[in-house]
C-alpha cells in the first residue's frame, strides 16, 4: 500500500488553525494547573487565606504609619487608601497571570527549562501560561476593597474624564507590573544563583508603588519614578484624580501618560528577556 | 568536646561553610535589602518628621538605626518560613532523619543557624555600613549594649528558626505546607516589626504581638543593640527571649514526636 501523502497523490491541505485551536494547548495546561492547586483542599484554603492576610497586613502597615502621623508627604490615610487600592489591585492581577515567571531561576538551576525548548511554542508565552496563581485572587480582593473604600471616602469631582483616567490607570498599572516580571526573568538568565537581586525591582517596586512618592530622595525618584515607573502606576494618577499638588520631579500631567510608561516597561522588559535568552547556553543535559 | 554535642557542632560548621559558597546569592540579597531599606527609611523618616521630629521615642537617628539593623538581620532571621525540613517531610526523606542517632530537630536547626550566622557577614554588616555611611544612625557609645545585643541577636536568630521548624512540622499532617509558610511569613514579619517598629502599634495590637515569639526574633535584638532600650529593661527583654527560646524548641520537639507516629512514607 502506498502512502498517499508521500507520493503526493492527494495534496496535503493544512487546516487553517483558528485562535481556539492555537490556544488549546495553553488552556489545557492552565486548566490542569488550576485543578492541581485545588487538589490539596486544606492547603488551598490556607493558601487563599494566607494570600488575603498578606494583602491585609500590607494595608495595616500603611495604616500604622498614618495612625501615628495623620499627614505624611501631603497625603492623609483616605488619600493613600486610593493609591494602595489602585496599586495593589493591579499588582495582584498581574501576579495572578505573571507571578510564577519568577520561578525561572529554579528551572534554570534544575535544568528543566530545556523542556520548554522542545515544544513548538514561544518560550515566554509558555512560561507565562505554565501556571496560574489562583491564590492571588483573595489578595486582589483586598486591593479592590481598598479601592472601593478609597473612592467613596474621597471627594472626587467625577466626570467622564475621571472615570476614563481611573480605568486607564488600572489597566496600564497591571501591564507595567507584568513588564517588571518579564524584566526580572530576563535578568535571571545572567545571575541564576543571585536571583534574589530581581526582588528589589519586582517586590521592592510593589512596595514603592503604594508609597507616598513625595517623600523619596532624588535617586529613588529617578529609579522608581522613571526607570521602573512605579510612582506612575498609582501615586501620580491619584494626585490627578484628587486634584492634589504634585511634588518636585513628578509633575501631575504624567498621570495621563500611564500607557506610555507601561509600553516603556515592556520594551525594557522584552529587551532584557531577549538578551537573557540569547545568553542562555542550555542546562547541560 | 562532649560526644553528644559534637555532631550538632559539625552540622553548624557545615552550615556556615555551605552558605559561604553562595557569594552571588549574598550580593543579590544585599542589593534587595538595601533597596527596601532606602524605601523604608524614606517613609519612616517622613513619618517621624510629620510627627514633629520625635515619635514614640524615635528621632531620625534612632529610626535609621532601626531601619538598617532590621534590613541587616533580614537574611539571618527566618521570617519567610521556608525550611529544608518541610521538603524532607514532603519527599519522605525525613524517614532517614529519624533513623539517625541524633535529634532531627537539633540537626535541622544546627545547619540552619550555621547558615544564618554566616549570612551576617555578607548581608548584615554591609547593610548596617550603608545605613551608617549614607544616612547616619544613632548607636550606643558604651560596650554593654553591644555585648548583650549580640547575644540577643543570636537568640533571636535561633528562635526564628525554631519557630519556622515547628510550623513546618505541620507538614506531617498537611503534606503541602506552602499556605502555612506564607501565613507564617506575613504574620512573623508584621509582628516582629520588620516594616513598622512594634512601638508604633496601638496598645491592643502591641499586646497581641507580645503574646507571640515574633518580637523576640527581631524587634528586641534591635532595641537592645541600638541602645533604645538599656539597663534593666534590656536584661528583661533578653529574659523574655530566653523564655520564648524554650517554648519554641519544646513545641518543635513535641510536634516532631507526634509527627513521627503519624508519618507514613510510601515506597520501598
TrEMBL record, chain A:
InterPro entries: ABC-2_transporter-like. The chain crosses the membrane at residues 42-66, 78-99, 165-191, 212-232, 252-273. Keywords: Membrane, Transmembrane, Transmembrane helix. It comes from the Bacteria. PANTHER family: INTEGRAL MEMBRANE TRANSPORT PROTEIN, SLR0610 PROTEIN-RELATED. This is ABC transporter permease. It comes from Nostocoides japonicum T1-X7.
UniProtKB/TrEMBL annotation, chain B:
It comes from Nostocoides japonicum T1-X7. It comes from the Bacteria. Keywords: Membrane, Transmembrane, Transmembrane helix. Pfam families: ABC2_membrane_6. This is ABC-type uncharacterized transport system permease component-like protein. PANTHER family: INTEGRAL MEMBRANE PROTEIN, SLR1174 PROTEIN-RELATED. Signal peptide: none annotated. Coiled coil: none annotated. The chain crosses the membrane at residues 120-140, 146-175, 182-209, 229-252.
